[in-house]
UniProtKB/TrEMBL annotation, chain A:
The gene is rnfC. The complex is composed of six subunits: RnfA, RnfB, RnfC, RnfD, RnfE and RnfG. Its main location: membrane. Residues 505-524 have a biased composition (Low complexity). This is Ion-translocating oxidoreductase complex subunit C. It is found in: Cell inner membrane. Keywords: 4Fe-4S, Cell inner membrane, Cell membrane, Electron transport, Iron, Iron-sulfur, Membrane, Metal-binding, Repeat, Translocase, Transport. It is a peripheral membrane protein.
Automatic annotation (TrEMBL), chain B:
This is Ion-translocating oxidoreductase complex subunit D. The chain crosses the membrane at residues 20-39, 45-64, 69-89, 95-113, 125-144, 212-229, 236-255, 261-281, 293-310, 316-334. It comes from the Bacteria. One of its GO terms (biological process) is transmembrane transport. Keywords: Cell inner membrane, Cell membrane, Electron transport, Flavoprotein, FMN, Membrane, Phosphoprotein, Translocase, Transmembrane, Transmembrane helix, Transport. The keyword Transport applies.
Length: 531, 348
């Protein structure tokens, strides 16, 4: 063991503006191993669990499905299929509440499990992926329905295909897990470090062999040690490094982590690939390894069930579609009635209105907070312009000004002050002495701007449709007039020819033909002008 | 139904307005005690009266505006305004002027603009200037430090002085009042005396500034340091303001030390320290960007020097602060930070 060269971390680290130190509360749930949650009686599997085009439903009520069977196919490039996470019978396909900030419902397949947990036929493992065409490997990842597991749930296959003219120099692996309470990535790194690295190896291969930087916050020394040890054993050690970064929320934000590790800033409104970087979460790397090396679709994930209202907080490997209530029961239920149940971490997660919502691919944490942990902030006071929010903002915005404009519904100014660079990390709201729910105002403002833009687009489309119609009508009118003129001219020429010489008649006929051609041409060219 | 769900973050908030204000009040204690020590009970009487008037005025306006009274009073901002006002005015000020000042500050300057957070001008300083312009004599006749006048006014004497403008038998106003050091310096300089002559002439002078005044300012400095340590304020405004004042003072002192007092005199006489740590730092009326605060503070410091040296009023902190209150939104606009991912040029 001691012979393993442990890659040391002498790397220069960069900083970002702001950020906050906050009690990490990880000790609540990080002590015990990941336990496999039992198969629930019913699985409620949302048929779209990613950003992008919706998936196409492949099953009907009454169908028997097997574990790993595809029940909704990807439709479109930015899309991901969904698989059954255990065997059983589809008893309903209907709208059910899903974990979503707006408390929306979405189409779900409800599967009554049969307890057999029988696998469908799976594709061959691709252990020789390095010899295969990258497109084939990407197709496998896509087939497996792998999406970003850190929260964004963007289809991973797409992210691993930056295109032929974009060179990727760095693959950043996000193991920062900066949100308080959450420990699923921590446990995953401690227990399955080599699997994660296999996934990293595959992703590195697909990206053309960039340098790999694995960023982990230094409040997870065990995870750092486990990953360094596994890296020492792996052939990746020459091209990858495990980097311990200072614990500071939100270091795990994609843009912040990239800045810390590389010193580069992802351009506003841009994506990391523009600066030669791809960032993937450790959980995603794990899912990629499972898909490629075992031919297994993404049907389960590690979820941290924690908070002081939970009797026995811990990490569970849960099948996608397991209702939250089942997982909480798995942790011996509530110790006291929670003040709220949050999906995700306390800083960026959202409160669940419904306890029975299912676990989906991006759900990393179920957090049952007591009144002491998440006290009611009380009524908001006026902004006193103290600037604490701006000091804490990792995007270096002026949250107090954004708040001012959002409140006044002055969305143009809010955009001038770069509303859309806000990552909704919540640092500003946490430090605000007036207890203003700042993030809520920014979300509201963004939604309004989106709605307005959509309206504008619709209005623009309607305008274009209207103009096209106008042009068509005008063209038809012109053509009608041109035809009448031609007829008149022809009649006139005929009358002339009858009265004049034959050569004159010929010339007149030629002139008439010319006029006809010109009229036609004019008529034909109009619509393109009008369109 | 979904609107009842509160948006993230779901964590306890670490700051509270009333705690911030309480820190400010705490930090004022040494300065107020020092003033009481040197200028007598009148200081405390004024503070008490001002706080009482301010709280009552605020409660009344809130009732009229049909706003909840207790949360607004509970934020303690009216108390801070009252204390800052009371320690800026002479300890001899008739009670009704304090009442007038507080009504002006709370009703006109603060609540009519919408209450805490919406007032463009610092209420305490606006009230101070309002009274200075209306009652220049009462506002400039300071008590002499007790160690100069040798007269020890009891609590009852001070009360009688403020409530009825009467002094104990056998004492007349000239015996207990004296010009402030800044005032004295300005008047004497106007008489074409040199600094050395001025300092020789009177017992008013201590090591740096006026006797007694230096200690009062030192106590405010202590309070300011406490606020910095507790991170209730940031260093930007106090440091830039004092730097602005000191650099001009030093420049002119170097050019002509006979007509310009030693730079430290500017710090330790008058309200420079109080202004730098407690008044210019009022977040509501100051600039809100940190870069803007450097400009804001430096301009206040420079303006204070200019008014003290060439202006018509002995002290200038109130004027300088109000002047820069006007400029604050513009400074904010031009000092926006570079937003993450926006290249090196300033984001507009
Ligand atoms: S922290 Fe709150 S009170 Fe202070 S400037 Fe920001 S929004 Fe205003
Ligand atoms: S939520 Fe937005 S404005 Fe607030 S600190 Fe985070 S990035 Fe800045």
């Amino acid at each position: 063991m001691a012979a393993n060269p442990v890659p040391s971390s002498e790397r220069r680290l960069w900083t970002f503006h702001g950020g906050i130190h906050i009690a990490d509360e990880k000790a609540l749930s990080n002590a015990s191993e990941i336990a496999v949650a039992p198969v629930p009686k019913q699985l409620v599997i949302p048929l779209q669990q990613h950003i992008g085009a919706s998936a196409r439903v492949l099953v009907a009520v009454g169908d028997r499905v097997l574990k790993g069977q595809c029940i909704a196919a990807a439709d479109g490039y930015v899309s991901a299929p969904v698989h059954a996470s255990s065997s059983g019978t589809v008893i309903a396909i209907e709208e059910r509440p899903v974990p979503h900030p707006s408390g929306l419902s979405a189409l779900c397949a409800v599967i009554e499990t049969d307890g057999e947990d029988a696998w469908a036929e799976l594709p061959e493992p691709m252990t020789h992926y390095a010899q295969l065409d990258p497109a084939e490997v990407r197709e496998r990842i896509r087939w497996a329905g792998v999406v970003g597991m850190g929260g964004a749930s963007f289809p991973t296959g797409v992210k691993l295909n930056p295109g032929p003219d974009r060179r990727i120099d760095t693959l950043v692996i996000n193991g920062a897990e900066c949100e308080p309470y959450i420990t699923c990535d921590d446990r995953l790194m401690r227990e399955r470090a080599s699997r994660i690295l296999e996934g990293v190896r595959i992703m590195r291969h697909l990206l053309g062999g960039p340098e790999v930087l694995i960023g982990i916050e230094d409040n997870k020394p065990e995870a750092i040690a486990a990953m360094r040890f596994a890296l020492g054993e792996s052939d990746l050690r020459a091209s990858a490094e495990v980097v311990a970064i200072p614990t500071l929320y939100p270091s795990g934000g994609e843009k912040q982590l990239i800045r810390i590790l590389t010193g580069k800033e992802v351009p506003s409104h841009g994506i990391p690939a523009q600066i030669g970087i791809v960032c993937q979460n450790v959980g995603t790397a794990h899912a990629v390894a499972e898909a490629v090396l075992d031919g297994r679709p993404l049907i389960s994930r590690v979820v941290t069930v924690t908070g002081r209202a939970i009797t026995a907080p811990r990490n569970l490997e849960a099948r996608i579609g397991t209702p939250a209530t089942d997982l909480i029961a798995c942790c011996d239920g509530y110790r006291e009635q929670p003040r709220k149940l949050v999906c995700g971490g306390p800083m960026m997660g959202f409160e669940l209105g419904e306890q029975g919502v299912p676990v989906t691919k991006p759900v990393n944490c179920l957090l049952a907070l007591t009144a002491a942990e998440a006290p009611d902030p009380g009524p908001a006071l006026a902004c006193i312009r103290c600037g604490r929010c701006a000091d804490a903002c990792p995007a270096n915005l002026l949250p107090q000004q954004l708040y001012w404009f959002a409140r006044a519904k002055d969305f143009d100014h809010a955009q001038d002050y770069n509303l859309f660079d806000c990552i909704e990390c919540g640092c500003c709201a946490q430090v605000c002495p007036s207890h203003i729910p700042l993030v809520q105002y920014y979300r509201y403002a963004k939604t309004e701007v989106w709605a307005r833009e959509q309206e504008k687009r619709k209005a623009e489309e309607a305008r274009q449709r209207h103009e096209a119609k106008q042009a068509r009508l005008e063209r038809q009118e012109r053509e009608r007039q041109a035809r009448m003129r031609q007829k008149k001219e022809a009649l006139a020429a005929k009358a002339k020819a009858e009265s004049g010489t034959s050569s004159e008649a010929k010339q007149a006929a030629i002139a008439a033909a010319r006029a006809r051609a010109a009229a036609k041409q004019q008529g034909a060219s109009e619509p393109t002008d009008g369109a | 139904m979904t609107s009842t769900l509160i948006s993230s973050p779901h964590v306890p908030r670490v700051n509270r307005v009333d705690r911030v204000m309480l820190q400010v009040l705490l930090a004022l204690v040494p300065g107020v005690l020092a003033m009481t020590w040197f200028f007598g009970w009148g200081v405390l009487v004024n503070v008490t009266l001002a706080v009482g008037f301010a709280v009552i005025a605020e409660a009344l306006v809130l009732l009229l505006r049909r706003r909840p009274v207790l949360p607004a009073l509970g934020d303690l901002s009216a108390v801070v305004t009252a204390v800052l006002f009371a320690i800026s005015v002479p300890p001899t000020l008739p009670w009704w002027m304090t009442l007038l000042g507080m009504l002006f500050a709370i009703v006109l300057v603060k609540q009519l603009y919408g209450g805490l957070g919406y007032n463009p001008f610092n209420p305490a300083m606006a009230a101070y200037v309002f009274l200075l312009v209306s009652y220049p004599v009462a506002m400039t006749s300071w008590l002499a430090p007790e160690l100069l006048s040798g007269i020890d006014l009891s609590f009852g004497d001070s009360l009688a002085m403020i409530l009825h403008q009467v002094l104990p038998a056998g004492v007349d106003w000239d015996a207990v009042t004296a010009a402030t050091p800044l005032d004295e310096m300005r008047t004497q300089l106007d008489e074409q005396l040199t600094i050395a002559e001025i300092r020789d002439q009177s017992a008013l002078w201590g090591v740096f500034g006026g006797r007694g005044w230096e200690w009062v300012n030192a106590a405010f400095l202590l309070g300011g340091a406490y606020l910095l340590w507790r991170r209730t304020i940031t260093w930007h405004i106090p440091v830039s303001m004092l730097a602005g004042l000191l650099s001009l003072a030093t420049l002119f002192w170097l050019i002509d030390p006979q007509t310009h007092p030693f730079p430290a005199f500017h710090l330790f006489s008058g309200a420079a320290i109080l202004g730098a740590f407690f008044i210019a730092t009022d977040p509501v009326t100051a600039t809100t960007t940190r870069r803007g605060q450097l400009i804001y503070g430096a301009c206040i410091g420079a303006t204070v020097f200019v008014i003290r040296t060439w202006g018509g009023y002995p002290d200038a902190v109130a004027f300088a602060v109000l002047l820069m209150n006007i400029a604050a939104p513009t400074i904010d606009y031009y000092t926006q930070p570079r937003v993450f991912g926006h290249g090196r040029e300033r984001a507009r």
